[in-house]
Structure formats: structure tokens, C-alpha cells
Amino acid sequence: MMKMVSIPGPILQEKLCLVNQNDELTGTMSKDRCHIGAGRRHRAFSLHILNSREEFLIHRRSEVKMLWPGFWSNSCCSHPRAGETVDAAVKRRAIEELGISVKPLFCYKFEYREEYLDVGTEHEICHVFVARSDELPKPNSAEVSETNFVSFSDLDRLIASRPEDFTPWSLMQWDVLAGKSLGKLLSDSEPFA
Known about the structure:
- This protein is α+β, with helices and mostly antiparallel strands and 193 residues long.
- The protein has helices at 9-13, 31-35, 86-98, 152-161, 168-177, 182-185, and strands at 15-19, 25-30, 42-50, 55-61, 72-73, 76-78, 105-116, 120-132, 144-151.
- The strands form two sheets. Strands 3, 4, 5, 6, 7, 8 and 9 form a seven-stranded mixed beta sheet that branches. The chain has a two-stranded antiparallel ribbon with strand order 1-2.
- Strand 1 and strand 2 (25-30) form a beta hairpin.
């Protein structure tokens, strides 16, 4: 039996950016309507934070999340609000979800569509960022139930042995990020240019 959770109304009514296949704004829609049923294509981002020991910060999504509750994912994943740049949204959500200030570096973007049981769908053009930080996370329990810093090789092993424990978008990104050197990921220019 599926566990039903109560998500605060203001969060679900937050306006997200609907986009076409070229990531051009086509309108706005509430967060809940973007994710219900077959989902609507919208703009999103994923952030991968690395510390000075070359460890990635991963988090377990809160059990109150509508989609993929309790799954492990990259450091932070969310959406820019209508009228907000993606870079500004990354900085805002890293503070709101993890209590960490970051200077994000854009890597690449991609489109994906994944259904979660009979609850809803993610259909996103996802902007992928990396950042460095040695700040310890102070997780917002409404968003994050657990955090962990893991080495590149340990994360690779975790994903290979238990892919079903991770969000689909984090797996897609890991396939790309794992093929890049950490130095290139964290260079001062766009690492995928």
C-alpha cells in the first residue's frame, strides 16, 4: 500500500517554468500540476557538491517528497521559480535544503522523463552544476532525511550495486560525470565546453 504524505500547499503551488525542447520558456505552472500524471516539461537543476577530499555530497530525499521519497540523489535537485535564473535557484536551494553556500559551475543540460509508480512524473530539462564546499550540511528535514560524503570510487560502487536506491536523474548524470576527471569538473571554465 502506498504511503500518502501531506505536502504544504504553498510549496505545491509554487510556479515553475514550462519550457519547450530547446529550453525556451513557454509559460508557468504550479509545481504540483507539473508533476501529476504524465507531467509537463519544465526547467530544473541538479547540483553536485565536492569537498576538498574529493568526496561527493549525496542526500536521501525526505519521506514527504511526492516523487522518489527516501531515494538517494545528488547533493541538491530542484527548480527555478518563474522569473528566477537557474544559477540563482541553485544558490537559493543549496542554502534552503542543505544550509550550504555555493558558487555553482554549469556543466551541461539534458532532457529526461521518468514516471514514479502511479503518483506522477518528472519531465525536465535539467541543468547540471558542480561546486566545491567544505561546509557541513545542515539539512532541511522537509527536503532531506540524510546526507553523506562519499568518494568517487565508493559512489561508483554504490550506484553499480544498488541503482534502485537512487533517483533516475542522478543515475543519468553519474554516467556523464563519472567519465570526466574531477579536475576538469572543477576547472574555472565550463567543464563540458
